[in-house]
Structure formats: structure tokens, C-alpha cells
Amino acid sequence: MTNVEIAAVLAKIADLLEILNENPFKVRSFRRAVETVSGLAEEATELVAEGRLVGLPGIGKSIAEVITELVRDGRTAHLDDLLEKVPESLLEMLRVPGFGPRKASVVYEQLGLTTLDELEAAARAGQLRQLPGFGAKTEQKILEGIELVRAGQDRWLLGEALPLAEEFVARLRAHPEVLAAEMGGSTRRRRETVGDLDLLATSNDPAAVCAWFAREGGLATVEMAGDTKVSGRTERGLQVDLRVVKPESFGALVNYFTGSKEHNIRLRERAQRMELTLNEYGLYRGIAEDKGDQVAGENEEGIYAALGLPLIPPELREDRGEIEAAEAGRLPHLLTDADMRCDLHMHTNASDGQLPLAEMVAAAREYGYSHIGITDHSASLYVANGLDRDRLWAEIQAIRELNAELGDFTVLAGIEADILSDGTLDIPEDLWPELDFVIASIHQGFSQDADRMTARVLKAITSDRMDVLGHPTGRLVLERPPYGLHLDDVLDAAREHDVAMEVSSSPHRLDLNDAHCRLAVERGVKLCINTDAHGPKELALLRYGVMTARRGWVEAPSVINTWPLPKLRQWLGQRRRA
Ligand code: DGT
Ligand code: CA
Ligand code: CA
Ligand code: ZN
């Protein structure tokens, strides 16, 4: 079983446990285990074989047993037992936005509903509104949610959601009654997919802001407009929730709705241990009923400070060790957009890009970089009009001529070489010394099994003819799982041969992902964050790669794009002089 499959089973178990109202701690540990397994560099199979599972975050003895069973038998009695108690078809209901295991448990127990179709029929018949915790509005939301699920749009790419959230926030900030506005939720944490937008604002007159937002805030439909809250959807159906509070609670609101839920729980527990109460309105002295004066709440810094912590960047708030690191004064100095001196992967119309060399270079120059890399496809990629020897040589010469004209801006002559099925690199032998650098990627033969795929990549890395492994796992967000690859072995080889792993910044790729970025850097492997732009617009997407790296705790020195050109040349030169 692959890690992806194992994580899916663990998530299923967590959902079923929650539907059965089992111990929340048990549910939480399964959810943490899902995170851990999805972020593993090694195959869980290997960890099981070597008895190294227990002790990984969220993996205690009992979950380790479940994973061991899965690896050994491809199934686990734990799941089988749960499925005797609850029909599996209930799980399809959980894809409906806002419809969690609790609600599933209610419709199952009270109405005996077991499928998405039955849920839809009951909602249409008005049967849901009578259930505890439901209502006519919930019923309507569920119907809309079912439509989204049917259209396959229950989660959105960060690349779609973030620009919308930024527009909403800008519109809010421009309103005279709005003192401050911020986005929250997964969008602020820069998760690769987003369920809905959470918008947060502060005003001395929240009701006026809500009334205005419901009318002119930019929503296509409004489902709810209250004095402190507005909900609706955008043109394309993305759910948006705005909350507006008085200034003394704004920091607490932003903190609560930024999440993640797991991070919030840890913060609240910490507050409790300090005899404080943290909620979405503020941080207060005392616990529960004897809650007293407000200690903090106006801004997030104040809340973290009162809890004895520095402000934790939203990208880190996933309960992946950030609270411990903050406490120890060891939060990473995260990479920023401003640290990025170059984009090293882009295409011209010599292969499958849109613009001629000079125009693509001019477009990239607009971003304030000091240098860039041009990397057209190699000959074997016919579908992308890959460059044969003569055309590659012509491009290298054209780049040299261009550099002579450009003055203080440098274009590096690179290539995106295919890693062929047998692991050789598709580069003309005599032109390798002429190239400034090589990105090597897999574009064909995805169906090979993990062992062959890994052997293929290892052969490429150990050839010492490549500098960067392009989009290393081949996944497409929400579309295609990664190809099987023993990332652990790949990272070891990459460190030994000093090959960087790419973080492909397209919101459809984000490859490496956040967890893998963190692993790579922990293993001493360098990263190279690129857009792989095929036209000028895509050059703007570099920030999504930076966001992914930030979620992976990455600091600037690990990213070769942050190095001044002489340092980058020195690094590339080592391989060439060897
Ligand atoms: P999404 O929308 O599915 O991509 O993910 P989020 O993280 O935006 O989650 P969402 O929209 O359900 O809720 C926004 C934030 O509100 C979430 O990150 C943390 C907070 N929150 C929501 N429900 C709970 C809860 O039950 N307990 C706590 N402590 N916080 C919650
Ligand atoms: Ca959200
Ligand atoms: Ca939400
Ligand atoms: Zn490319």
C-alpha cells in the first residue's frame, strides 16, 4: 500500500469514529497520523519493516498496529469493525461543504439516511430542518453543497481562492467604516486547497459594514446577512463568510478564524494552563464562569505575547511543532518573496512557450530579478516541440548575444532535460559543457512502479549532469496523485550529489509540497523555486512556491534562488569543473 492509500484509510477511520461519537482524542490522533503519513518521505512499508513507526508525530502503538496491518494485509480489522456499525456510503456526505461527521451522525441516527442521494431527497422534502442543530438555512446550504460536490468543486485551488480573497479584503479596507480587514482560514495559512473563504473585519459599526457588504461587497448570492456576519457565494459558487467585530476583539477574531483548528486547540489548552480563557472575542483572566478582565484581543501579537509566545506566522499554524518551536525561541526565519532573486525555469516559443526569447526575458525582468534561467524542453519531448541539438545550440548562442546587450541583468542558458525511461538525461553530449545549468524532469512513462521510477531518478541524479530535479513527484493538485517514488532515497542521493529539488510554483502543481519541502531541508537538500512559466502571465505565480516553502518551514539560505549570481555560478561551476 502506498502512503497516499494508507493516509486515506486513516482519514476514513477518523471520520467513522467521529460519526460514532467516539473519544475526540482518538479522532484527533488519527487525524494527526493522516498528516504524518502524507508527509513521509519514506514508504510506510519500509518504516514498518524496520519497526520505526512508533514515535512519529501522532503515531502511537495502536495506530502503528493499524498501519502495520494495512501494509501486511492491505486491510485492517479496525476499519472492518467500524464499517459493521456504520454504512460506508455515509462518508460521501462528508464531501458536502460544512457537513461534518457530527451532522452525518444525526441524519443517520434520526432519519436513517445512508447516502448522498437520500440526504438530497430529505433536504428537498424539508425533513432536515427539524433535526437538532439544523434549520431551514442549513438545509438550503446542504442542497447547494451537494450541487458543488456533484460538480466536483468542493475544494478550490489556492491559486483561485487567494486572488478572490485579496479582492474582498481590498474592497473591505477601502470602506470608510472599516478600521482593518484581513482574510482568515486556510487561505491565510496558504493551504494548497481551500474549502471556503473566511473574511474578518473590524469597525465601530459592524452592522453598517455587514449591510453594505451584503449589498455591494462583491457576492453573487447572499444567504445570510446579520449584524456581525454575512454569508454568501461568489459567481462560481465559492462560499464566503464575513465576520465583523469591535476593535477590542479583532485580533482574537483573526486568530480564531485563521486556525487551524488543531493550532487553536493547542493555544486554548495553553491559555487554560495559565488560568486564562481564549475565545474568538479575546483572551481573559480566569477560567470559564469566573472569566474576568480582558488581557489581550485587539491584535494577534498581544494574544501570543500574553501566552508567552512570539507571533507565529499563519503558514505554520498547523500543530506541526510550531508552538514548541515558538516556546523555545526557535521559529524559522521564513523565506519571503523579497528574498527571491531569480526564477530559473521558463519556456520560450523555441519549445512550447508563448513568447520569443527576448520578449520572455523582458517580461521576467519586470519582476525585479537580477538573473533568470531559460529552460526549454529537450528533444525527446516531441509534444512540446523539444529542442534538438542544432536548435539548442542556436538558443544558447542567442542567450549569450542577449546577455551582451542586457548589461546588469543575466540570462542563464539552461535546459529542461527529460529523464528518459532508463534514467539517462536527454542532453546532447557535446552541449552539456555549454549549458549553465540543467533541470531534469520526468514527463513520460508515469506508469512505472515505484522501484523502477526511483531507480530511474537515482540514475539521473548520480550522473552528476543535472542541477535541479524538476517537479519531483509529478502530482497535480486535485487531479493526479504523485507517481510512486521512494522520496527518501531520492533525497539521500540529492544531498550526496548536491542536486536541488524544485518547488514548482504553479497552483496546479506545488511540487514538492509543503511537507516534502520541510523534509528535504531537514535532510540538507537545497530547494529551487520556479514558475515553469510558458507565458508572461505565469511568471507571477512564483509567490505560490514561496508560500509552499514557508509552510514547509523553509529559510532563505536553503533556496538557491535567493543566492546572489556569483554564489549561484560558483555552486553550478563545482559540478562542471569536477
Ligand atoms: P477550509 O475552509 O476547509 O479550507 O479550512 P479552514 O481552515 O479555513 O476551516 P474553516 O473555514 O472550517 O474554519 C475557519 C477557521 O475557524 C479554522 O481554521 C479554525 C476555526 N474553527 C472552525 N471550527 C472550529 C472549531 O470547531 N474549533 C476551533 N477551535 N476552531 C475552529
Ligand atoms: Ca475556510
Ligand atoms: Ca469557513
Ligand atoms: Zn518546464
Overview of the structural elements:
The protein is of the alpha/beta class and 578 residues long. It folds into 3 domains: 3-152, DNA polymerase beta, N-terminal domain-like (DNA polymerase, domain 1, Orthogonal Bundle); 157-327, Beta Polymerase, domain 2, CATH 3.30.460; 337-577, Metal-dependent hydrolases (TIM Barrel), CATH 3.20.20.140. 42% of the residues lie in helices and 13% in strands. It contains 22 helices and 16 strands. It has helices at residues 3-19, 24-38, 44-49, 61-73, 77-85, 101-111, 116-124, 136-150, 158-174, 185-189, 206-216, 250-258, 261-273, 300-306, 322-327, 357-365, 389-406, 450-462, 487-496, 514-522, 542-551, 565-577, and strands at residues 156-157, 180-183, 193-194, 197-202, 221-225, 229-233, 239-245, 276-279, 282-285, 294-296, 371-377, 410-418, 437-441, 468-469, 500-504, 527-530. It has a 6-stranded parallel β-sheet with strand order 11-12-13-14-15-16. Strand 5 and strand 6 form a beta hairpin. Helix 12 packs across helix 14 and helix 20 (514-522) crosses helix 21 (542-551). The longest helix has 18 residues, at 389-406. It starts with a helix and ends with a helix. The model has no long low-confidence stretch (mean pLDDT 94). It binds 2'-deoxyguanosine-5'-triphosphate, calcium ion (2 copies) and zinc ion. One calcium ion is lined by residues 185-186, 195-196, 198.
